Here is the input.
Amino acid sequence: MTRLTRGRLTNADLLAVLTCGGLATFLALFFRGYGLRLAVPVMFVLVIITVAQLFNRLATILIAAGACLIFALVLFEPYGTLLVENAADRLALIGFAVCALAAILCSPKPARQKATRPWARK
Here is the structure.
C-alpha cells in the first residue's frame, strides 16, 4: 500500500462509506431535475471534509471516488453512463474531485487508539 492509503478499514469506516454512498445517491436523485444540481457536489464536499476529520483516509478516498461515480451516473445527463454531456456539469464534477482530494490530503490523520492486548509484553 502507498503511504496515502496505509491502514485498514474498520467497521466504523465501512459504515461511513455505506452511509455517505447512500447520502450521495439520495442527493443525486433528489436534485436531479432542478437547477441546483450543480450545487450537489459542493454540498458533498462539506461531507467529505467532515468525514476526513473523523475517519481513515482510505475510507475518505473511497467515499470521494464513489460519490464521483454516483454523480456521473445518476446526477448528470445522460443518466446511467459515465459520460457527462454538458461542459458545466463536467467542470462541476472535476471541481468536486479536485476539492475532495485536496480536503483529504490536507486533513490530519485521526489519532489511533492503542490496542489493548493482554498477551503483548511491554
In short: Residues 35-106 form one domain.
